[in-house]
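Feature request, filed as a ticket because there's no other form

It would be nice if the structure record came with a short human-readable summary line next to the tokens. Right now we just get the raw output. Example of a typical job, pasted below so the devs can see what we mean:
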Amino acid sequence: MVYANGQTQETSRRFDEGDVLDQRKGLGRIQTSSRSDGVKPFRPHQVDSSKKNSLGRTNQYRDIPPGKIIERLKFIEGRYLSHLKTLQQQLEHKLDETKGEEEDFKTAIQELEQEIYNLVSSQELLESPTNEISEHKK
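Raw output as currently delivered:
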């Protein structure tokens, strides 16, 4: 759609370079101070030189007492070790559950094998006396 005299007009969906120039008229001008054109380099992570130590590294936590940093470190360590312990317990529980399922499966297979052996042996017993009788009649 194109705006002309405050009203919208239908346009085709084809790209026309003339339309682009017409639409730019209402956008205003670009301020050169907001552009990064190479004249003034843009550095989002500029370091305050007053916080550099003798090795050239920044010391953002210069004003924080070491005890607070150690306290935070111990807190992070405790949380992470607790998380790992929880995962370990979940894995051990899952392992125990899986071992139980394995035992149940093996028991079910053994019972089915025994039933098959019982059927086969009962079939043989039923067939063998009849075979002997029919052989004696001959």
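Something like this underneath would help us a lot:
The beta strands are 2-4, 7-9.
The first strand starts at residue 2 and ends at 4.
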